[in-house]
Design goal:
Structural class: alpha/beta
Helix content: 40-55%
CATH architecture of the largest domain: 3-Layer(aba) Sandwich
Strand content: 5-15%
Number of domains: 2
Oligomer: single chain
Shape: elongated
Strand order of the largest sheet: 7-6-8-9-5-10-11-12-13
CATH superfamily of the largest domain: P-loop containing nucleotide triphosphate hydrolases
Largest sheet: 9 strands, mixed
CATH class of the largest domain: Alpha Beta
């Protein structure tokens, strides 16, 4: 048999013989065509005759739901493609020596590479004219990014819901309370309410300015790191250095000034000895980064640094940019959150972010009322897109008293409307389960602790 190695690095292409064998393999094993051939672009074949033959097979299958005979395909192609060697090529393909099972498996595995590589090569060819015009570079970027995603979902056929094996697996996941794979938030109350951060879901912390949204996000990241999982933290406001400093403060339990002390070194050794997960912090300028940019960065991280995130934190999604332009800001925000959600689905990770509440939120809070999704600054549509959302109800006076009241306004897989407290100590970048510190206990004894029991919604 002729060479079946496929890719030829000298010519940056798949050999003609290999491309012919792809078609022959699909004819001999129609299930390969049903799995991969239906979604293969016929333009992936470099030789025009092979491309026309493959397109003919696709057209015949689409209409008759089966593979054509040699005679039927010849008759179909004769009406639209003229070549002196067509019948000879069809004869070679249909009368091809029976391909062994092992070679069939090899070819099927190689088809995925063929589809991806040919799509990327075609995107590059189509972009050559645009490279000379900086204004058209976004077109180049869009083509390349689209090509990189081709082939990623070829084997995703969804869930065969009432297949015996799937039924058993689903019931076991339900029994284990893991029907949707989740990562613990690190906070008992959050886990009780939400079950953890769900794969492919978006969780947002909403609150007015200076309420601690970024601090909550750092604590989410730290809690996940301590579970020996990898965290990608995208920051659009704070520098990478300040974000890393907050992680140091949180993980070591120290103030900013104490980070320079000897105790910091000892605590760092202790933390690292427990083998925490990896943390990548990446800063982008606000209003410039899109979900596609983050997706490209994640792929680069995997290729260059062998880093695959278990969770993505974005501080914060409101100041990202949509891949499409909208004149109305609310439509832009809706699009951003939908694209962020798709990011989580694509990489099978939870997305945790923050949302700014409008100016009236602080006034409502200071009047003793609880903030709800109605206070989201620009777009109520955000509340429809996200899976889980809480409001942070903290005035500056509350923060000085180490109190942060949480209100659950969205919980796609559970009940909403619950309120509970968290203990905050921003001097140490710490947010934990509610429990009075000694200082707060003394204040409560003196009657100075603010009463948070009465809540008005």
């Amino acid at each position: 048999m002729a060479n079946i190695s496929g890719w030829n690095p000298d010519t940056f292409s798949f050999s003609p013989e290999f491309q012919k064998q792809i078609i022959a393999a699909m004819i001999q094993e129609p299930k390969i065509f049903e799995r991969l051939g239906i979604l293969t672009d016929y333009r992936s074949f470099d030789i025009a005759e092979y491309a026309e033959i493959f397109k003919g097979i696709q057209d015949f299958y689409e209409e008759y739901r089966g593979m054509p005979t040699k005679e039927a395909l010849s008759d179909l192609l004769s009406t639209r493609y003229h070549s002196e060697t067509l019948n000879e090529t069809l004869e070679e393909i249909y009368n091809h020596k029976r391909i062994s099972t092992s070679t069939i498996e090899y070819i099927e595995d190689s088809i995925r590479n063929f589809i991806s590589c040919q799509a990327l090569k075609r995107a590059i060819y189509e972009s050559i004219d645009d490279l000379g015009d900086p204004k058209k570079h976004p077109n180049v970027k869009e083509r390349i990014e689209k090509a990189l995603t081709i082939g990623a979902s070829l084997d995703d056929f969804g869930i065969d819901a009432y297949n015996d094996e799937e039924i058993l697996n689903r019931w076991q996941r339900r029994k284990d309370k893991q029907e949707i794979p989740r990562i613990s938030t690190g906070w008992t109350k959050f886990d009780q309410v939400f079950g953890g951060f769900g794969i492919g879901e978006v969780f947002t912390f909403t609150g007015p300015a200076h309420s601690g949204k970024s601090m909550y996000l750092v604590n989410v990241g730290a809690n996940v790191l301590l579970q020996k999982k990898n965290v990608l933290h995208i920051t659009l406001e704070m520098s990478q250095e300040i974000t890393a400093q907050r992680y140091d403060m949180r993980l070591l339990g120290l103030t900013k000034d104490e980070l320079n002390s000897k105790i910091a070194i000892e605590r760092l050794k202790e933390v690292l000895s427990n083998h925490i997960g990896r943390l990548i912090i990446k800063r982008y300028p606000s209003d410039t980064v899109t979900a596609n940019d983050i997706a490209t960065f994640i792929k680069r991280l995997e290729m260059v640094k062998d880093f695959v995130p278990d969770i993505i934190i974005i501080d914060y999604a409101d100041i990202m940019r949509s891949t499409h332009h909208y004149n109305d800001r609310r439509f832009e925000l809706d699009a951003i959150y939908n694209q962020v959600r798709n990011l989580g689905i694509e990489f099978k990770v939870p997305i945790v972010t923050a949302t700014q509440l409008n100016r009236s939120a602080l006034e409502r809070l200071e009047s003793g009322k609880i903030l709800t999704e109605g206070n989201i600054a620009e777009s109520y549509g955000i509340a429809r897109v996200i899976d889980c959302g809480i409001t942070i109800n903290s005035t500056p006076a509350d923060i000085r008293q180490h109190v942060s009241t949480i209100y659950v306004f969205k919980n796609r897989d559970g009940e909403s409307g619950e309120t509970f407290r968290m203990y905050v100590d921003f001097s140490r970048a710490l947010i934990r389960e509610w429990g009075p510190s000694p200082d707060i206990t003394n204040q409560m004894k003196k009657g100075k602790q603010k009463n948070h029991q009465k809540i008005i919604i």
